[in-house]
Write a structure and sequence with these properties.
The protein is an alpha+beta fold. It is about 30% helix and about 30% strand. Helix 1 crosses helix 3 (about 115-125).
Length: about 475
């Protein structure tokens, strides 16, 4: 099957169009401008705010003019990730969707269902002539995945709607009314190098094959972190030989669980076989530890060229930092059952001229985020490194009396004969930032089933997209009068 054979056809047609426009954070403008032309060709009004966000307005359908105005909100950017050996070029190549056993995935890359499905249903509503709705605004923001700068820069008083349906969550049957806030932390340490000794040989150590995933939605699954696994292997090697780092890189985004990590090291030629034995033992150990969670872990040793080596004391400090910095769930909420309160993702490492680590702290409480950030800063000081916070954003405080929630609950019960789960998500949504600028807007968030977002295994369940669409158009019809 192809996307054109799936229903609702308008939703999948628009999603197929989005697949033609890979759009990493900071590179959404071509798509945004295309959508502005698309909307204007249909007689819809458009507006760009000072932050570059696109607002598309559609008048109420006949008889719905007195309904409360609704905002549909989604973000245009996607996480662009691929496996290391995949030749796909996101700057020129479209996403290649595949329909497979009830799901849509991509060929070796992220799919962009996060948040392409939200954008696609919003576009389908805009172009429809047979859907009843009151005054409608579609807010398409920029740069959500890299720092939410679009929502940060959203101008107040542009939007007139009183209810907002955020279309950016990934579990069907759940209505979200709150989310975690977050802060990025960059840890940097200066390193010194020596010329490579002729008595040393260089090898590359690779840790690959991990599932990765979204650092908010998947952090509680306790999947492996490729950076941490590599650090363990490096430390075990240091116990047996004078291993020196040459370069190091791992992870790709602060908000994606690291799937791959690579280190080029130098070891005395007489000890080169030690790495092979350690790699084999580490692979067996890691697969045992992560059985039924992350079973595809691969550890390999490859030949490598020449270069300068990091001094022994700095090599040890780098490894110590990677082992000491927190990663994963810090604390579960005692207020909201089965919800992570605070976590950290040790997301990206790079060792070139200096050593740099990028981390992302999430928490439902400001104090929880601050406490964990202080812990990271303390680790940095002990390693004679600096830690800098940036890009903090507020959480979204739940409002169980929200009219948006009441509408979605009522439609869900009527259409599906079930009670939706009311949830708070540990991932960051733009609702917190938008709510700070528009405190009177009442919000709820829902979406289809998306699995393994922020990884090349990303996929969306086809049946849940149909339900997602039915819920949204039902909500538009059920919005109360002003």
């Amino acid at each position: 099957m192809t996307l054109s054979e799936l229903t609702p056809q308008s939703v999948w047609r628009n999603f197929a169009m989005l697949c033609e426009h890979p759009r990493s954070s900071g590179k959404e403008l071509v798509l945004r401008d295309h959508l502005a032309v698309w909307a204007e060709s249909r007689g819809l009004s458009t507006q760009l705010d000072s932050g570059g966000n696109l607002i598309i307005r559609k008048p109420a359908t006949s008889g719905m003019e007195e309904r409360v105005g609704v905002i549909l909100q989604a973000h245009l950017d996607m996480v662009c990730l691929k496996n290391r050996d995949n030749p796909h070029d996101f700057t020129t190549d479209p996403i290649r969707p595949v329909v497979e056993r009830g799901w849509v995935r991509a060929e070796g890359t992220t799919l962009g269902a996060d948040n392409g499905m939200g954008v696609a249903v919003a576009l389908a509503v805009l172009e429809a002539t047979d859907i009843a709705h009151g005054p409608l605004e579609v807010l398409l923001t920029l740069d959500e995945e890299a720092g939410m700068s679009g929502a940060r820069s959203l101008q107040p008083e542009l939007l007139q709607g009183q209810l907002m349906f955020n279309l950016d969550t990934e579990d069907w049957g759940e209505l979200y009314v709150g989310c975690a806030g977050g802060v990025n932390i960059s840890v940097r340490r200066h390193i010194s190098r020596d010329p490579a000794s002729a008595a040393f040989v260089m090898r590359e150590i690779s840790v690959t094959g991990l599932k990765g995933g979204h650092s908010g939605c998947d952090i509680h699954l306790e999947r492996a972190n490729a950076i941490r696994l590599l650090a363990r292997l490096l430390q075990n090697a240091r116990k047996q030989t004078d291993l020196r780092l040459v370069s190091l890189r791992g992870g790709s985004l602060r908000n994606a669980l690291p799937r791959e990590a690579f280190a080029v090291v130098a070891v005395p030629a007489c000890d080169e076989n030690i790495l092979d034995a350690l790699a084999l033992a580490a692979q067996d150990q890691y697969r045992l530890e992560y059985a039924k969670v992350d079973e595809g872990i691969s550890v390999r040793i490859n030949d490598q060229g020449t270069g300068t080596v990091v001094r022994a004391v700095d090599t040890q400090s780098v490894i110590d930092l990677l082992l000491a910095l927190p990663h994963g769930v810090r604390r579960w909420s005692h207020v909201i059952p089965e919800v992570v309160e605070t976590s950290n993702n040790l997301g990206v490492v790079k060792l070139e001229d200096d050593f740099e680590i990028t981390l992302m702290v999430r928490s439902l409480t400001e104090s929880g985020a601050d406490e964990l950030a202080m812990s990271i800063e303390a680790c940095a000081r002990l390693a004679e490194a600096t830690a800098v916070r940036s890009g903090s954003y507020p959480g979204w405080v739940p409002d169980l009396s929200s009219r948006a929630l009441q509408v979605a609950q009522g439609v869900y019960r009527a259409k599906f004969g079930l009670e939706p789960a009311i949830k708070v998500i540990h991932a960051g949504l733009e609702c917190g930032l938008i709510g700070a600028k528009y405190p009177r807007v009442e919000m709820v968030s829902f979406g289809p089933v998306i699995r393994d977002a922020h990884s090349p295994d990303e996929r969306v369940e086809i049946e849940s997209v149909r339900h997602f669409w039915e819920l949204l158009i039902g909500c538009l019809d059920a919005v109360p009068q002003v």
